[in-house]
């Protein structure tokens, strides 16, 4: 046990001044102590100031503001750029003016084309990330620009860019499709899902709440939010608090965030829960896509089965049906009720399933591909791993029919036939592949 230090003379000073006389030698001693304390204080203050300076000089810039380098290297802005933006967003009388995020993605490309064909003003934004081969995204971009849709290369987390787009174009609607997709990739790069699906969504909503007039927003949620729910078919009224993957969790978080911005700021928001979308120009990370690639190359394909040799089934929904649901959602979206970031009244808030309401076992999918490719697949059946995938998906689309008059018309046989035709054309090396639709 350490010894106690002697009590200092200062400890004997009463709390009430004026009733205690210092000894004669004490003023000189205290002056020395005072000067010593002052020197130490000055020294430590200097160290503190140096530390603060180093912190501000060496620390990264705030995520809400672009760095000087980012501003200098920016690929957006300027009169020519603004002309391309306004030309792309030009609409016919009574048409919509839509900002499509993730426009070079699978669904984004098809929705942008559909809107442009009917005379709406459409501007796209995409960051062309490398989650899958960006050459496919560039091909989609070329297709869009051939049809009058300009795709701005940028990230939805770039708030100054989003504000600039709204300064140039008074968008009436936003079709928010930008997201980090894929269930299994979340195990490798979880941060990308938080960055895109949560932070990116908040960044977009922050800009939308502040502009005047506020746009109506339609965005892509996912059937994955139903997670471990065993009740079928999946209804919008079912519980969605048991996600089976991080991807699903971020989409569920997006639905809660949408509710918050609707409640506080009066943003009109419609969330669409997509069920396994497939078709031409699709995503290479989807089973039907890489099955096709591997079957043609003679490589074995892995088909997972549920416990007890049960089937793994998906509610495969053809892209044209999904597009009809997206466009109908934009057409039926009511106006936002806020102004300048302040809510003036209740605003529309919807969550709607978009599926085919006809689940098909994955093994049947492979059989259809074999038929249209005229190649026998080398099948390898394995137990379903615990990587976030679920055994089945099945959509109840009664609400979609009521709200959107949504009625899917393409069965898996027909849809896969169209996909195979596109795939063989696009990857045949033909110079005309970009025009294939």
* Shape, per Cα inertia axes: globular
Rg over CA atoms, rounded to whole Å, is 30 Å
What is the residue-averaged pLDDT?
84
Alpha plus pi helix count:
13
- How helix-rich are the residues, as a percent range? 40-55%
The span between the termini is 84 Å
| Beta strand % | 5-15%
Strand order of the largest sheet: 3-2-1-4-5-6-13
- Main β-sheet description: 7 strands, parallel
Number of strands: 15
**SS content category:** alpha/beta
Summed up, what is this model?
This protein is an alpha/beta fold. 42% of the residues lie in helices and 14% in strands.
Provide structural commentary.
The protein is globular. By secondary structure, the protein is α/β, with parallel strands linked by helices. The protein has helices spanning 26-58, 68-72, 79-89, 106-117, 134-146, 159-168, 190-210, 246-265, 287-297, 319-332, 362-373, 398-404, 412-426; strands spanning 97-101, 121-126, 150-153, 173-176, 216-222, 269-274, 277-278, 300-305, 313-314, 317-318, 338-339, 342-343, 349-354, 360-361, 378-383. Helix 4 (106-117) runs parallel beside helix 5 (134-146), helix 7 runs parallel beside helix 8 and helix 9 packs across helix 11 (362-373). Strand 2, helix 5 (134-146) and strand 3 form a beta-alpha-beta unit. A seven-stranded parallel β-sheet has the order 3-2-1-4-5-6-13, with helices on both faces. It has a two-stranded parallel sheet with strand order 7-10. Strands 8-15 form a two-stranded parallel sheet. The chain is 42% helix and 14% strand.
């Amino acid at each position: 046990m350490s010894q106690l230090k002697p009590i200092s003379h200062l400890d004997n000073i009463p709390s009430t001044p004026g009733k205690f006389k210092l000894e004669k030698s004490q003023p000189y001693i205290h002056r020395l102590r005072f000067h010593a304390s002052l020197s130490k204080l000055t020294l430590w203050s200097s160290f503190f100031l140096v530390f603060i300076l180093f912190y501000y000089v060496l620390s990264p810039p705030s995520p809400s503001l672009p760095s000087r380098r980012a501003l200098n290297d920016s690929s957006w802005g300027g009169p020519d750029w603004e002309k391309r933006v306004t030309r792309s967003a030009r609409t016919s009388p009574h048409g919509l003016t839509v900002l499509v995020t993730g426009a070079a993605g699978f669904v984004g490309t098809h929705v942008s084309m559909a809107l442009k064909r009917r005379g709406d003003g459409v501007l796209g934004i995409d960051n062309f990330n490398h989650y899958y081969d960006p050459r496919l995204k560039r091909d989609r971009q070329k297709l869009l620009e051939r049809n009058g849709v300009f795709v701005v290369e940028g990230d939805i987390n770039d708030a100054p860019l989003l504000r600039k787009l709204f300064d140039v174009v008074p968008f009436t609607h936003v079709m928010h499709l930008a997201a980090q997709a894929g269930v299994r990739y979340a195990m490798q790069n979880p941060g990308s899902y938080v960055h895109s699906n949560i932070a990116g969504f908040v960044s977009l909503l922050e800009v939308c709440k502040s502009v005047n007039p506020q746009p109506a927003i339609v965005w892509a949620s996912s059937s994955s939010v139903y997670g471990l729910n065993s009740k079928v078919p999946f209804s919008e009224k079912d519980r969605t608090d048991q996600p089976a993957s991080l991807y699903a969790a971020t989409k569920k978080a997006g639905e809660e965030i949408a509710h918050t911005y609707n409640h506080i700021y009066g943003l009109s928001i419609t969330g669409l829960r997509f069920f396994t979308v497939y078709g031409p120009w699709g995503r290479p990370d989807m089973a039907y896509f890489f099955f096709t690639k591997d079957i043609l190359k003679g490589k074995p394909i892995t088909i997972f089965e549920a416990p007890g040799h049960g089937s793994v089934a998906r509610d495969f929904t053809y892209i044209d049906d999904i597009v009809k649901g997206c466009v109908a959602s934009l057409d039926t979206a009511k106006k936002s009720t806020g102004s300048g970031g302040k809510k003036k009244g209740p605003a529309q808030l919807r969550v709607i399933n978009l599926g085919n309401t006809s689940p098909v076992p994955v093994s049947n999918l492979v059989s259809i591909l074999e038929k249209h490719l005229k190649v026998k697949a080398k099948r390898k059946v394995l137990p379903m791993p615990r990587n976030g995938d679920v055994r089945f998906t099945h959509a109840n689309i009664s609400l979609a029919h009521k709200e959107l008059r949504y009625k899917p018309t393409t069965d898996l046989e027909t849809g896969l036939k169209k996909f195979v035709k596109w795939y063989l054309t696009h990857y045949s090396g033909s110079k005309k592949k970009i025009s294939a639709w």
